[in-house]
Amino acid sequence: MLEKEKNKYSSEQIQVLEGLEAVRKRPGMYIGSTNERGLHHLVYEIVDNSVDEALAGFCSEIKIIIGKDNSITVRDNGRGIPVDIKEGYGISALEIVYTKLHAGGKFGGGGYKVSGGLHGVGASVVNALSEKLQVKVFIDGKIYFQEYKNGEPLDRVKEIGECDKEEKGTEVYFLPSKEIFETTVFDYNILKTKFRETAFLTKNLKIILKDERNEKEEIFHYEGGIEEFVRFINKGKNPLYNEVFYCEGKKDNINVEIALQHNDSYTESIYSFVNNINTPEGGTHLTGFKNSLTKSINDYCRENKLLKENEENLSGDDVREGLTAIISIKIEEPQFEGQTKQKLGNSEAQFAVQSVLSDKLIYFLEQNPKISKIICEKSILARKAREAARKARDLTRRKSALDGGGLPGKLVDCTEKDTSKSEIFIVEGDSALGPAKEGRDSRYQAVLPLRGKILNVEKANENKMYENAEITGMITAFGTGIKKDFDIKKLRYDKIIIMTDADVDGAHISTLMLTFLYRFLPELIKQGHVYLAQPPLFKVQKGKKIMFAYTDEERDKFIEECGGKATVTRFKGLGEMDTEELAETTMAPETRILLKVNMNEDAASELDLTFTTLMGDEVEPRRNFIEQNAKYVKNLDI
């Protein structure tokens, strides 16, 4: 999509902004954290350098290998990092790239027109945070090599052999520092999700991911680019039409790509990217997309008399109901709001997206009247449901006001007024309410019982949701409101704890709850307020000695410790525990086990697909998912 750069790539293009300072002392400032997420960001930084070569037109294949020692090797067939001596520094440009912070070909030296990279710190930070790093460069028929330890070069860049003159590229091997990271074990699935997404966004780029720990290997290569991305996300949903709308164009030196398709669901799945960087908070490019989409569909409806003269225009929410879309732009000087690059600020990006989309979408709608009618009718039905939902929401508010205080009748509230200290248990059924109510600490623990399984919001519109007493009860109890009314400052409890039976029905209710929270209250998950309680499966008793087991293995171990003679009780539900048992094992902060529900925004499209697979209409994808993943479930981290 981008024109291939003609200029020579040499040390002249390497611009040095500042030296490498304090990275090992304050790694969180550069990669966000030293936990699993920060660990994987190291890989992204190195791969992003290779992707930048692909965006410039010089790289067609990237191979990522997870070594048996939990090392990472990244090999590309790009131009190869320059190895000549940088004027004024007396050392190779390669050494500068790996030892100087903010050094590279992306700061106005002409090496790249557009570039990604998560924080713009790249290779030097990965080097600083690795106990060992090696670089090989294949260029001009020769192989160059340099090795580092904790960011320090062990020797100068040197020639170590010859290669075919046609062979080019860079190979980087690194071993993350165990002194810095909480874990140095790479998760194959996290990397798989990230690099599949990268391949979708970089048309024709082949990415190979290999795991030498278990000989697993996958290849991601999509000639259709983001058009195939939309089809991938819509897998498991029911598209309303077969064709995926796709357009690309250039405006004010900004390359724009857009793909979209509607399905019969009630939620939108829109993902925006800048230079292959995911922007979960959107920004000007997303605003331009929404403005253009809403105007184009309203104009088409008016021109074809699908809206009456006295009817108001369709809203953005109406035209985006059931929409899956990818917006990907390439821009030379992206301006992000905040260090984590989650929101684009360039005003010119809005006008570029609007300009490209408006012309192409209007033409598409005019050339495909059957598809256009389906889109318009879906949007008009969405407006009717939105109006019904607004009336239901207003009715809920009025009922709450008349009830006095507005809290749901079955809520057993706590007395603590400081919301940072309070928590609410969402429990399954009235049978669990008794022991939970008695076993709680009434000062700061509230309990709200659910009557059976709540509404599956994946299959229902917002209007149906407001008719569901269990869901409206939770919304009222939490206090934040939802969607446009959402205000995190009004949250009444710091912890929202889902407490269900340790069986299949309990797992289903938990999944229904998480689907509701993910679709309508995602900030509660993002900001760390949602937890899953972990009730024990067994009580093992010998005489006066009592132990609780959460797995079959723990049970067997306890029985062995008791000399093989013990009474084992299998808890089929929370209601089978007495007050003291439930309090000790599942509710008391000193002795309970809670799983915190996290949302991996680096894998947002994969997460969307997972909820659709689990809670959507299609049975076969759900069966396949459960068969493939059931044996791996030890923790929950979405």
In the CATH hierarchy, the architecture of the largest domain is 2-Layer Sandwich
Give the DSSP E fraction (strand runs of 2 or more residues). Answer: 15-25%
Secondary structure category: alpha+beta
Note the main sheet. 9 strands, mixed
User: Rough shape?
Assistant: flat
The number of strands is 24
Put simply, the count of helices is 19
Q: Count structural domains.
A: 4
**What fold name goes in the CATH topology slot of the largest domain?**
Heat Shock Protein 90
Mean of pLDDT: 86
- Helix proportion: 25-40%
Oligomeric state, counting identical vs distinct chains: single chain
> Terminal Cα separation, in Å?
34 Å
CA radius of gyration is 28 Å
- Given as residue ranges, the uncertain stretches (5+ residues, pLDDT < 50) are 400-405, 625-638
